[in-house]
Amino acid sequence: MKQLSKSQIICIVLLWLALCVMLVVSAKEINWETIFTMVASGVIILIGVTKNNGRSNKFRRK
């Protein structure tokens, strides 16, 4: 997989934040399902971004 640039990472994170805001605004009530959805999606985004940056740094050192 190709390394993500800083601007791509920022764009992905901002889109995730926008989706979280839309979820909170449109939710009639904030319950554990809403919170779990936001946390789970955040973990998925965080893992993807950190793995991409970590992998690219490993290859660069060799």
How would you portray this structure in words?
This protein has 62 residues and is mostly helical. Helices cover 82% and strands 0% of the residues. It has two helices and no strands. It has helices spanning 6-26, 32-61. It is elongated. The relative contact order is 0.16. The model has no long low-confidence stretch (mean pLDDT 85).
Order of helices and strands: HH
Number of separate helices:
2
**Envelope shape:** elongated
What structural class should be given to the helix and strand makeup?
Answer: mainly alpha
Strand content: under 5%
The largest sheet is: none
Task: List how many beta strands DSSP finds.
Answer: 0
Distance between the termini: 17 Å
Quote the average pLDDT: 85
Low-confidence stretches: none
Helix content: over 70%
Layout of helices and strands:
Elements: H1 6-26, H2 32-61
Features:
62 residues; 2 helices; mainly alpha
How do you describe this structure in short?
With 62 residues, the protein is an all-alpha fold. The chain contains two helices and no strands. The mean pLDDT is 85.
